[in-house]
Amino acid sequence: MHISKTDQINILVIDDETDMSEFVADAVTAIGHNAVAVSDADDFVRAYSTAFDVIILDLFMPKLDGIEIIRFLHENRSHASLVLMSGKDKSILHSASELASERNMEVLGVLEKPFTIDQLEAILDKFIPHAHRQKAPPSDIPTEQGLRRGIADHEFFLVYQPQFDLNTGMISGVEALLRWQHPVRGLIHPGLFIPLAEQSGLINNLTEYVLEEAMSQMARWRDHDITMSINVSPTTVVDLDMPEKLDEMIKARDIAPEKIIIELTETAIMENVGSYMDILTRLRMKNFGLSIDDFGIGYSSMQQLVRVPFNELKIDQSFIRQAVTDRECQAVTQMSMSLAHGLNMRVVAEGIENQETYDWLKSMGCEIGQGFHMARPTSPVEIEERFLS
User: Fold this and answer.
1) pLDDT band at 162 (very low <50, low <70, confident <90, very high)
2) Paired strand residues for 370
3) Cβ(210)–Cβ(229) under 8 Å?
4) Which partner from 10, 21, 280, 319 sits 20 to 30 angstroms from 237, CA to CA?
5) The pLDDT value given to residue 86
């Protein structure tokens, strides 16, 4: 593959084994990029500069180990992306990758020694020059005033992420997802407006809209054997009358309560379980489904999981995407499924992006899956035409 000069990456290779650092540098050069190889801490300090786009780093070095170098890069506000490599325990690679990510450093990937040039090239292909990265300018970040106007002008709408029974391949439900179509800025990502809504107190307005719209849509699908999952912000789960209000909404639309699944994130709920127990327990008593979302990224204790009456567990996509290639992600996924089944909960895997992951999850007894491999979030009309006709 020919790489133009404008596409070339400046790469610093750090490995205490001189032969290895030079081998990797030669491989980088063969791919078409620029490389400098160093093999000890003093050479690293002399060679380092902000001109490097990528740093390929061996974690185990005697004088200045990889974790110390990551700390150095963080403290010096390096913008370089990282590729971590090691010939030892892969779990340490995984932990180091998490550490770097928590410090807002991009990790392109990890390499277990020995590795091939093709594996190295595949990771370097993920690099995107900073000049080409899309970042929301300050003017594009929504304001509270803009959010209020958007709500008043009905600029919000729902799309639906199909969920599938992994055994039959048939649609089993949908997840309602909120979108904001700004008249000037276009589609605004939920990651920008949901935190703003929670901080400003406008989340209740959005939640009310989502519930009304999703349940009205579910009423039109009442004759189909599917469920409707609705994400609810924990800041709204403080109204003691919430179970009764939801009960009134489904009765007015003639919807069976077990077809509605309320999703709450693990991190938010587990921080203050006691405050939500009253409401969550009564939701289950009224036969609503209750799902713990993004499981695996929070800090649930066994005692808390047993106390809360969830009947569904959604494993976070960060684990599912690497479940067949990463030993740690696979272990977390397997343990999560075992825990859920032991507590009589069904499992939903989110983020399935290929057939291999689908087949593995199916073989492990996962009941439900969602992800781009099967279908992207889409409109009710397309749901009907593709899956319900």
Assistant:
1) very high
2) 350
3) no
4) 319
5) 83
- Reported as a single tens digit per residue, the pLDDT across 164-218 is 999 999 999 999 999 999 888 888 888 889 889 988 989 999 999 999 999 999 9
CATH number assigned to the domain covering 5-132:
3.40.50.2300
Look at the alpha carbons of 93, 95, 99, 101 in this order and tell me if their dihedral is positive or negative: positive
Cα-Cα-Cα-Cα dihedral sign, residues 237, 369, 213, 243: negative
The dihedral region occupied by 12, where left means phi > 0, alpha psi between -120 and 50, and beta the remainder, is beta
- Residue of 374, 383, 342, 377 lying closest to 166 (CA atoms): 374
CA of residue 293 relative to chain centroid, distance: 11
Query: Does residue 219 sit in helix, strand or coil?
Result: helix
Parts of the chain belonging to CATH 3.40.50.2300:
5-132
- Tokens representing 216 are 């009205």
Residue 2 pLDDT = 46
295-306 confidence digits (pLDDT tens): 766 555 566 677
Distance CA 388, CA 134 (A): 37
Is residue 249 a contact partner of residue 211, using CB atoms and an 8 Å limit? yes
Name the residue type at position 230.
Answer: I
Measured distance CA(382)–CA(225) in Å, rounded = 17
Nearest-angstrom CA–CA distance, 372 and 160: 12
- DSSP labels, 125-166: TT---GGG-----GGGS--HHHHHHHHHTT-EEEEEEEEEET
- The pLDDT assigned to 88 comes to 74
Cβ atoms of residues 284 and 311 within 8 Å: yes
Q: At what angle do helices 203-220 and 242-253 cross, to 10 degrees?
A: 30
What's domain 138-388's superfamily in CATH? EAL domain (3.20.20.450)
Whether pLDDT at 42 is above 60: yes
Q: Which of 10-19, 35-44, 123-132 shows the highest mean pLDDT?
A: 10-19
**Range 232-237 average pLDDT:** 79
Q: Which residues contact 370 (CB under 8 A, 6 or more apart)?
A: 161, 162, 163, 164, 175, 348, 349, 350, 351, 352
Question: Do β-strands 312-315 and 289-295 pair in parallel, antiparallel, or remain unpaired?
Answer: parallel
Eight-class DSSP state of 387: I
| Tokens coding 112 | 């277990």
